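Record format v2
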Amino acid sequence: MSPKLEVCLTPALIPLYNVEEYVVVVIDVFRATTSICYGIENGAEAIIPVSQVEECSAYREKGLDYLLAAERNGEVVDGFDFGNSPFSYTKEKVAGKTIVLTTTNGTHALHLSRSAKKIVIGAFINLTTICNWLKQQNENVLLVCSGWKNNFNLEDTLFAGAVVEQLKGSGFVVDDPAIAANDLYQIAKDDPDAYLKKTSHSERLKALGIEADIEFCLKVDLTTAIPVLDRERLVKLQ
Amino acid sequence: MSPKLEVCLTPALIPLYNVEEYVVVVIDVFRATTSICYGIENGAEAIIPVSQVEECSAYREKGLDYLLAAERNGEVVDGFDFGNSPFSYTKEKVAGKTIVLTTTNGTHALHLSRSAKKIVIGAFINLTTICNWLKQQNENVLLVCSGWKNNFNLEDTLFAGAVVEQLKGSGFVVDDPAIAANDLYQIAKDDPDAYLKKTSHSERLKALGIEADIEFCLKVDLTTAIPVLDRERLVKLQ
C-alpha cells in the first residue's frame, strides 16, 4: 500500500491522527526549528526544547554545562546565554554543547507527537536533505505545523507545501491539507519573503526587529543535518 | 477599530476564538449548508440540524408534521422522507414545512459556535447575498468551515476564500487562514469543480453517485435567502 503524506495544520489537530503510524516532521520555521537545524549542523551535542522560561532556567541549577536560550519580546532574558535567533547557533558557540531552547509552539507540537515512529525536525535550511531522507523511509509521513498559539500560520504551511512539492512524485497518497499547502507554496515559492509580508505575523516580527532572522529562516538547503528526537533531546540523526 | 474577518479552518479550532465577539458563518458546502440555503429559499418554515439519525427519527415521535432527512452511505435511510441532496429541497416538497436534517460536520460546527452574536449559513448558492449582508453589519466575522471529521477540507475553505474575496476591500482585518483561503480560491475560482477533483473527498463523493449534487453545490448566487439560527432552528433572516 502506498504510504500517506499528510499535513497537520496546527498542533490542535494532532489528536485527529494515529500519530504512532507516522514519521512526524515538526515544523516551526520562525524560528525554533531553523535554529535547531542550524545548531545541530554546527555540532551541538543536543538541543532540549522546553516551553517555559522557568523550565529552561531549571537546567542552570542542574550544574551541568548547558547553554540556555530564552527570550521575551525579542530580548534575551537576563541571565540567559542567548535568545532564539539562528545567528546564535554558530559553530563557535554551540559545538559540543547541549542547549536548552525555550519555544512554546514547537515544544507543544513535539509533545503531542511523542508517540510517533520517529520525530525529525524540518526547516527550509534542511529542506532537500529531509525530503530525500523521507523518500527512503517507506513510511507514512505527517508534517506537523507548529503554527501560532494552536492555530494555522502561513510560514509553517509553506514549508509543508515545499516538502509536498519534493515528495509528490514519489507515490505518496496526499490529503486535502497537503494539497492546500502545496498550492500555497506554488504561489509563494518565487518570493516567500514577499508573500509572507502579507501576514499580520510579519508585522509582529518586524516590530521585534528580527527581519534578518526571517530572511535566514527562508534560505533553502544551507544544512544537511537532520535533528531527531531521542527521549527529550534532539540530536543529529546518524 | 476595523472589524476582523477570520477563517476557522475546522470545528476543532473554534475554541481558539472568543466566538461571542463574532457573527459566525457556518459552511458545509457538500452538502448540508447548500441544502439548507436552498430549502429556506424555497419556503421551508425552519430546518433543524441534528447530528445523529436517531435524533432525527426522534422527531417522528413528536407527532408533528416534520420532514425527516437522513442518509447513510448515499442512500435515504428507511422510513425517512429524503436524504441530503439539495434536489430534495424544492418548493413542492418543503414550502411551509419544518425539516429535520442529519448532518454530522455541520451540526458540530453550529453547536460549537452557539455563543456567537449571530449564526448564519453560507454556501456558494447564496454567496453574494451573504457577503452583502456581512458588509452591512460592522461586526467581526468568523467563517467556520465544518470540514471533514474535525479536519480541514478544501471545499469549505474555498467558499471561505470566496467570501474573503468579496469582503477584502471593505476594511476588514484578515488573519492568516483568511489569506490562505483567499489564495486557494484564486487558484480554484475559474473551475472549482476541476480543482476539487484533485481531492480524495472527490473520489468518495463520486463513489456515492452524487456528482450532480456536487455540481449544484458549486453554483453561485442561485438564492437570496440567508438562514439564521434561532435557538435550535434555522429560519429565514428577515
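The radius of gyration of chain B is 17 Å.
Residues 154 and 199 of chain B are 8 Å apart (CA to CA).
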